[in-house]
Design a protein that fits this description.
The strands form 3 sheets. A 5-stranded mixed β-sheet has the order 4-6-7-9-8. The chain has a two-stranded antiparallel ribbon with strand order 1-5. The chain is an alpha+beta fold. The chain is globular and about 40 Å long. Strand 6 and strand 7 form a beta hairpin. Helix 2 packs across helix 3. It contains 4 helices and 9 strands, in the order αβαββββαββαββ.
Length: about 170
């Protein structure tokens, strides 16, 4: 399973290098967000751990391929669930200029935080993973003209992790 996940991540990087994230046709990332949340059965103990806390009513429409945005969102959701305590909620906020995914966890060391979006870099954890999810998401954000901003603790909180995908509009 680990080899399969690593192979899939490396294929995603290969597609990114070919320019698949940017699209000349705007994509409604609100619809993509709803589809990803509906398809993913992120449940623990029979309870959904993902909470869509806020969603803009229309759009936002950004120049990104639907596939690329879905990959980025899945990576953020999977990381948030993987690195938060069991049955801890993961919050998703979709606004006109950004998507924010937050989860509970101990604060990440300030010197480690900027390195987490580099390839094969992982936090100080024993939880498995390849260290590619945030690197892929950052590449997708950059290629689509946006940015990925990582914060820990969550703004205004004493704990947690926040991944903000800023859109280019």
């Amino acid at each position: 399973k680990n080899l399969s996940n690593l192979s899939e991540s490396l294929m995603q990087f290969s597609r990114l290098e070919a320019g698949f994230a940017r699209s000349e046709t705007p994509t409604d990332v609100g619809k993509v967000t709803e589809l990803v949340l509906a398809e993913q059965s992120f449940r623990q103990g029979g309870k959904s751990v993902i909470q869509l806390q806020k969603r803009v009513t229309d759009g936002p429409m950004i120049n990104i391929s639907a596939d690329a945005f879905a990959i980025a969102l899945r990576n953020l959701l999977q990381n948030a669930i993987k690195y938060s305590p069991d049955a801890s909620p993961v919050a998703v906020v979709l606004e006109a200029h950004r998507l924010v995914v937050t989860n509970d966890c101990e604060p990440i060391a300030p010197d480690l935080l900027p390195t987490l979006s580099s390839r094969f870099v992982r936090g100080q954890t024993k939880i498995g993973g390849s260290g590619l999810g945030l690197a892929i998401t950052q590449s997708i954000a950059h290629e689509s003209g946006g940015a990925l901003v990582l914060s820990s603790p969550i703004h205004g909180e004493a704990r947690g992790f926040e991944a903000e995908f800023k859109f280019s509009v």
